[in-house]
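Input.
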Amino acid sequence: MNKAVAGLVAHVGEPPDIETSSDGYASRFRGKVGEYLLGVQERGLFSLLEQPPVPPASTVLDVGGGHAQLAPPLACAGYRVTVAGSDASCGMRLARHDGAPAIDFVACDLLQMPFADRKFDVVTSVRLMAHIDDWPRLVAELCRVADKTVIIDFPVYSSVNALSLLTFPLKKRIEKNTRTYRSFFGGEVRKAFASHGFRQTREWRQFVLPMALHRALPKAALTQQAEGLMRKAGLTGLVGNPVLARFDRED
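Output.
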């Protein structure tokens, strides 16, 4: 079992997307800093969709997407979006989201979803895999229902992880309800997808500095400018976390 940032990932009965679909979780992304963090994630998502191109009107399943971080922008871009959540409550934020076209919501077991094989052109999932104990089973299910492409995020081990370890107590003080999470070696994730016929084709690394620092420091513009300089210098592409990765079916 991979180690989490603070010990091992806790074994809990409640599916992790119930927490990430809550108003309390959404409060972590309020204000200018939250807009910036989500903006980087959204830019990475659409960058991965551009090459090889996934045209608008393609069907997208966002697994664990009740947080409404991906589904509304995808729907606004013309994709036909369905969100799978572990409980009916996971669809509440989507129902209240203004300005986005209709998004279908299905409450189900995310490790055994009620969809046919290869039902959706693209399957996405963020803020989920790092909190799932049986993550290989999640990967298997994402691959099963994806016809062409899976895009997920996950934190990876790197030398910069030391910053995350050091700032985790600060993260807990700022966010109050933050959770431990699992980090991965890129190779083990690629191997899991390869066992289901998918190959990693692209990735987008998000931040060099831990997100807790972005939230904690008084001059947010300075950390954001630093991130921009590090991305231009190529440092983000080497050690950035978390990783958004695209996997394409090989057949």
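Residues 170 and 212 are 7 Å apart (CA to CA).
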